[in-house]
Design brief:
Layout (H helix, E strand, L loop, with lengths): L8 E4 L2 H14 L8 E5 L4 E3 L4 H11 L3 H5 L29 H9 L4 E5 L6 E5 L5 E7 L5 E3 L6
Parallel strand pairs: 3-4
Antiparallel strand pairs: 1-5, 2-6, 4-5, 6-7
Amino acid sequence: TTDIKTQAVFFSTNPKSAEFFGQNRAQYFSKWTYFVHVAKLHLSNVLNLNQSIDRIIRILERMGFDPYKYYGIWDVHLQNTHVPSNSRMEKNEVYQLLDEPDFVQMLKKAGYDGVIIKEGKRLGFSMAVLDPSKIELIGYLNNKNEITPVPIPVK
């Protein structure tokens, strides 16, 4: 088995982005095959982290999250204090926070069941679902970009 650290299931409204990330994981873990799934997400309280880093910092401060505790480099202003420029975390690096079980638990405790994050410039946005029971799989995209339905289980 392969241990994946991420504490969320990620979705995109852009099939090309989903394919990019699927290929990336499949290549990294070499023996994996990926599918771009189509799903309905039944979310009721989504945290939008597709905001300026300053706004993200204020959100995290209100929640009492200390990134330095987890990363050892990002301070409370999401600056890397270990490099001379004190470079800040970029919006498209915020997904790293979702790798931390304590961060995800804090979000769940605050009532969030999803998080919107910014991906790279051409990849758009992703939705991180924190509770898999909120995902309804409909099908997957085949090589013709058509939806192949998920079989309905027989009871």
